[in-house]
UniProtKB/TrEMBL annotation, chain A:
Keyword Transit peptide listed: no
Residue ranges annotated for the ABC transporter domain, each copy included: 17-250
This protein's name: ABC transport system ATP-binding protein
Matching PANTHER family: IMPORT ATP-BINDING PROTEIN, TRANSPORTER, PUTATIVE-RELATED
Keywords carried by this UniProt record: ATP-binding, Nucleotide-binding, Transport
UniProtKB/TrEMBL annotation, chain B:
The entry's keywords: DNA-binding
Domain spans labelled Transcription regulator PadR N-terminal: 7-77
Protein name: DNA-binding PadR family transcriptional regulator
Residue ranges annotated for the Transcription regulator PadR C-terminal domain, each copy included: 91-172
Stretches of the chain forming a coiled coil according to its record: none
MF terms (GO), sorted A to Z: DNA binding
Native source species: Streptomyces clavifer
InterPro entries associated with the record: Tscrpt_reg_PadR_C, Tscrpt_reg_PadR_N, WH-like_DNA-bd_sf, WH_DNA-bd_sf
Upper taxonomic lineage: Bacteria, Bacillati, Actinomycetota, Actinomycetes, Kitasatosporales
Length: 252, 206
């Protein structure tokens, strides 16, 4: 595993995901609820951002809007330079197949498909040949040292394995944005950590990630931690190297 | 922090001179608690006074060597066997700060909590990065394993603090909601007016 610092040679990479003045309001009049009140957030390739906040702070709303699963009341969601509100339903479906991967707390693998088939599915839906999609899926599993479970069905895998397969599926093909909603929620701490290490590795390799979590231990794997409260960003940590913390390179 | 016992543990592996003890102490704990040579020699002379170490000649380069005595070994064994005392908690600046912030005029306690939470998370991010580096290759020698345990301790401690801050925040919100919906009591119950130590509260409850 390489260092988590993105290569400086390319200059500041363009954001993969940009949220601009994003708001989401449910209901109207006296029953009006402001789930998000003007969120600005940009996530670059190679960056993993953790979103924290108490329940009801808007974390999940932020993620569903970013993934195009819900529509903003105002503001923009821009993915790889494209304002997703300009896309029709067909364009949105294609964007979700090609650019955005979702990881859920309960893995959401298709029970009737093997690990490799689950990963290959979005590529096949996108018109890639079955053989090529299978090859890509097996390669992704190998890279994640999960080759031995390629032909297992979800009910033959542990929770941690299922979640790692879900991450592989989220980032198969050219997809560079992974949105993860409490990806470690149902896992014990060591397994949760292996899932985070994998997410971290995929971001180090050039993906952009946004992860909602309430666990500080997992949020600490991110480059940046964003704190939400009542639908607004109240604070965020600035990313920097570990060098700032301990004297010299005393570690090893 | 027990430098004394740390030095005894290192001396149990054979005679050593002062600055080598310092280097070994730091590589074992990843320079998390840097020592200066002065502290090492002061501690050594106290240990010598107490009969736990003895001067043991010089090495080829002329460094004065120290070795552990039988009393030193007994002391070291009893250190490993005895739990670290947690019954008189050390002063915690953050706990004191939040205690003082409750009801302090002009202080937004939620802002105090949030800025600390941000800072603590940032430290955790840095520690986690160090840990990921330490885990990149399977730790092999005992210094690497020891350092991993130390950095994970820092992460756990920071995590406990972050969780406690979350808890404080939701506790304050709930108390504020309760205060807004319930009428204020006419007078404070007498039993709660006097200052009580945590220990006396524990005793009273059992």
């Amino acid at each position: 595993m390489s260092s988590s610092v993105p290569s400086p040679s390319a200059g500041p990479p363009a954001p993969v995901l940009e949220l601009r003045a994003l708001t989401r309001t449910h209901g109207s009049g006296i029953a009006e609820v402001h789930a998000l009140r003007g969120i600005d957030l940009s996530v670059r390739a190679g960056e993993l951002v953790a979103v924290m906040g108490p329940s009801g702070s808007g974390k999940s709303t932020l993620l569903t809007l970013a993934g195009g699963l819900d529509t903003a009341t105002s503001g923009q969601v821009v993915i790889e330079g494209q304002d997703i509100s300009a896309l029709g339903p067909r364009g949105m479906a294609a964007l979700r197949r090609r650019s955005v991967g979702y990881v859920f707390q309960d893995y959401n693998l298709i029970p009737a498909l093997t690990a490799a088939e689950n990963i290959a599915l979005p590529r096949e839906l996108d018109g890639v040949s079955v053989r090529k999609a299978r090859k890509e899926a097996v390669a992704a599993l190998e890279e994640m040292r999960l080759a031995e479970i390629a032909d297992r069905f979800p009910d033959e895998m542990s929770g941690g394995q299922q979640q790692r397969v879900a991450i592989a599926r989220a980032l198969v093909g050219d997809r560079r944005l992974v949105l993860a909603d409490e990806p470690t929620g149902a896992l014990d701490s060591e397994t949760g950590e292996s899932v985070l290490a994998l997410l971290r590795m995929r971001c180090d390799q050039g993906a952009a990630g946004v992860m909602v979590t309430h666990e500080p231990r997992y949020a600490a794997w991110a480059d940046r931690v964003v704190f939400l409260r009542d639908g607004t960003i109240v604070d965020q940590t600035l990313s920097s190297g570990a060098e700032s913390l301990l004297p010299a390179e005393g570690a090893r | 922090m027990s430098i004394r016992h740390g030095l005894l543990a290192l001396l149990e592996r054979g005679p050593r001179y002062g600055s080598r003890l310092r280097t070994e102490f730091e590589s074992r704990t990843g320079s998390t608690w840097p020592l200066n040579v002065g502290q090492v020699y002061t501690t050594l002379s106290r240990l010598e006074r107490d009969g736990m170490v003895a001067q043991d000649g010089e090495d080829d380069a002329g460094h004065a060597l120290y070795s552990i005595t039988e009393d030193g070994r007994t002391e070291l064994r009893s250190w490993f066997e005895t739990p670290v005392d947690r019954s008189s908690p050390p002063r915690d600046e953050l706990a004191i700060k939040l205690a003082m912030a409750v009801g302090a005029p002009g202080v937004d306690i939620r802002a105090v909590i949030q800025s600390q939470r941000s800072h603590t998370l940032k430290a955790m991010q840095d520690y986690t990065r160090l840990k990921a580096q330490a885990l990149a290759d399977v730790p092999s020698d005992r210094d690497e394993v020891a350092w991993l345990l130390v950095v994970e301790q820092l992460i756990f401690q920071a995590e406990a603090e972050a969780r406690w801050l979350d808890h404080c925040e939701s506790r304050l919100v709930r108390l504020a909601e309760a205060a807004a919906t319930e009428p204020a009591p006419s007078s404070a119950p007498a039993a709660r007016t006097g200052a009580r130590t945590a220990a006396s509260r524990l005793r009273a409850r059992s």
